[in-house]
Design goal:
It is a single chain. This protein is mainly alpha-helical and 336 residues long. It has nine helices and five strands, in the order βααβαααβββαααα. The protein has a three-stranded antiparallel sheet with strand order 3-5-4. Strands 1-2 form a two-stranded antiparallel ribbon. Strand 4 and strand 5 form a beta hairpin.
């Protein structure tokens, strides 16, 4: 973190009655960082290497690259501060750092919804029959994919300008009752109208994109079911046709959407519960933040396990290392 003149020195809390909660919190968020950062970095490095060496990247792989990027930024902007807070360190951010981290987290958290939706819709279009209307979409999506992603970034940036205006580091000042109290920062919406408008914008975005990805996934599942029936009809005693690349990719997309929708539903249930109580337990708040960030660590594992390009690249790198190791051993023996 950056330290500036006049910045309050980091404060380290002494153990108290909340220590068991902080221990579980530390284990959870440090595990999330340990899994999420390297796995998302692997996806980005593989697809960057493919883009540089092969001069092209499939639309689905480009979308997965964007998902890995926003996942990585979510972990850095939310998982890392939560992990630092769990070990008792306080007051390490100033106003500018709070604004940047809050803005980054909220935009990238929104982008995970949008990009996962884009991934499912893209796979839906791939599986769709080659009729005139679907064929037009199949032809238009690849060249316009960068513009679609730019539009998604613009939508999420437009929802959160208040992060750059009203977020401040925790300090000795008065806040309104429309304030979100975070570990290191306060997000004071100042007025009821601003608070409600922000909530409505986020809700509309979430339900639109979650609903769209759910509908697209239902279409994919229906298509896979029909495909499975056709494969069963084509099977013979001496030949068992394997599953197509599109079939395997579609299963992976459905799994990603299922994970996201399940975590989104859990997060929504916790949020609804918090509206029914007068005082929210810190355990509940920590659980909601953890489950809200968990997708950033789970989704790259699914991508690495199911994406053929990544698995092939990792296997090639592993073989290259083994060959280099064997060559080194051979040279050392010859010199002895």
């Amino acid at each position: 973190m950056i330290f500036t003149n006049g910045h309050p020195s980091p404060k380290i809390d002494t153990p108290d009655s909340s220590q068991p909660r902080l221990i579980f919190k530390a284990v959870g968020f440090f595990s999330l960082i340990t899994i999420g950062v390297p796995s998302n970095a692997i996806i980005l490095s593989v697809f960057t290497h493919v883009r540089v060496t092969e001069k092209k990247l499939l639309p689905s792989n480009a979308i997965l690259s964007m998902l890995a990027l926003v996942n990585l930024l979510v972990i850095i902007s939310k998982g890392l501060p939560q992990a630092i807070h769990s070990i008792g360190i306080r007051n390490i951010l100033n106003d500018i750092e709070c604004k940047i981290l809050s803005f980054m987290y909220r935009i990238c958290r929104g982008m995970t919804i949008c990009v996962t939706c884009l991934l499912s819709c893209n796979q839906c279009i791939i599986l769709a029959p080659s009729s005139k209307s679907w064929l037009s979409l199949k032809q238009k999506i690849p060249p316009n994919l960068p513009w679609v992603m730019l539009l998604l970034w613009c939508i999420n940036i437009a929802i959160y300008p208040s992060c750059l205006i009203h977020v401040r580091a925790i300090g000795n000042y008065t806040t309104s009752k429309y304030t979100l109290h975070l570990e290191f920062c306060n997000h004071d919406f100042m007025t009821f109208e601003s608070y409600v408008a922000n909530g409505i914008a986020i809700a509309l975005r979430d339900f639109f994109f979650v609903g769209s990805m759910t509908l697209a996934s239902c279409y994919i599942v229906l298509t896979l079911y029909k495909h499975g029936k056709q494969i069963q009809g084509m099977r013979s005693s001496d030949k068992n046709p394997g599953k197509s690349v599109e079939y395997k990719a579609s299963r992976a997309v459905v799994l990603l959407v299922t994970i996201y929708v399940a975590l989104f539903g859990l997060d929504s249930c916790i949020w609804i519960y918090t509206l029914t109580v007068s005082r929210v337990s810190p355990v509940i708040s920590d659980a909601r933040v953890f489950f809200g960030t968990l997708y950033a660590a789970l989704s790259p594992i699914v991508i690495i396990k199911t994406n053929k390009k990544i698995k092939t690249s990792l296997m090639c790198r592993s073989k290259d290392r083994l060959l280099a190791s064997d060559a080194t051993l051979t040279d050392s023996k010859e010199h002895q």
